[in-house]
Every structure is written in C-alpha cells, then in structure tokens.
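Justification of computing resources. Each target in the renewal requires a structure prediction run like the one illustrated here; the chain below, 196 residues long, is used simply to show the kind of job we budget for.
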Amino acid sequence: MESLKDEISAVAARMVVEEGLDFGAAKRRAVKQMGLTARSALPSNEEIERAVEDYIAVFCAESQATELHALRVLALEWMDRLAPFRPHVAGAVWHGSATRNSDIYLQLFCADAKEAELGLIDRGVRFEVRSVPGFQGERVDALSVHVWSPVLEEHIGLHLLIYDLDDIRGALHPDARGRRPRGDATALRAVIGNSL
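Resulting structure tokens:
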C-alpha cells in the first residue's frame, strides 16, 4: 500500500512542479492518470510535499533557487502594497518548494471581508473572485490577480485569500513538520536575506 502512495506522490509531485497544480488537484489527476479508482488511498499533503522536494532536487536543482527568489521578491512587493490588510505568505513560496510554475498565495486578515476588494479597486487592480478552502477547511474568498515578474519574464498567479481579523491568532501554529505555516513581511524579508 505504501509503495502505491509513493507512486501517486511521485506522479503528483511532477504535476505540482511542472504544471503548477495544487496538491489536491495533482493527487486527483495522478490517480486518474495511473488508472486507479477514486477510492484509492491518497498520500497526505506532507508526503506530496516531500515528493516535490525530491523532484526539485533531481530535476530542477539548477533553476529552482533563482525562480524561488524571484517569486519571494514579487510576493514581498505585493505584501508591502497590501500592508493595511496584514498579509502573510503561505504555500510553496513560503516553504521554499516553489518554481516558476507556482502561484503566490497571500493570506489577508481583514476587519471587514470587503476591505481588501475595495483596496484593490482603489489601487486600480483587476481581480477575479472565487471561493476556495481556507486553512481550516472552511470556504474563504480568494481574489486572483495576474502579476508580471520581470525576472521570470512572465505573469504569475497571485491569490489573496481573505480571512477575518480574528483568524490571525490561530494562523501561526506550527504545521505537522513543526514549521510556521505562513510568514508576515518581516519574516519573508529575513528568509530572502538569508538566501542571498
């Protein structure tokens, strides 16, 4: 059973890195591509993340550090622009497994759910609104924007997930690997500074 999970993880990891899929979508597509049933035991997100790290080490070792740095700098620029909404970076950009195909996920903590939307409108930023699972499984609004990366010379997906201001208290508990699941602008600046 574990070897099947490992195979699913490896196929899903390739899709995460090469196609920029999120873990859930990559797992579902891996199962389908492998001809398995929808009831197949799926690997955990932690197992997928380890497989992504392994894939990057083998296939993207030369380019990934530069791409990750570019994405982190771009995330920090947007965090500075959105500072009134208490942005925190999460996902592959924060944890260090992002490549040029990865999107940037910023979590905004607002007193009013419409506050961020109005802030983007005031700044002349066009966005799409959709509903996505939040960090505790609840549905949250996501404002999606395409932003230009001059270093990568392409548009990158930037997703702003909107949370209540009170949610910030529970947002900083360590994940299953003991890591901070997200970081504010100060923390991201420190990570960028340490990677130079």
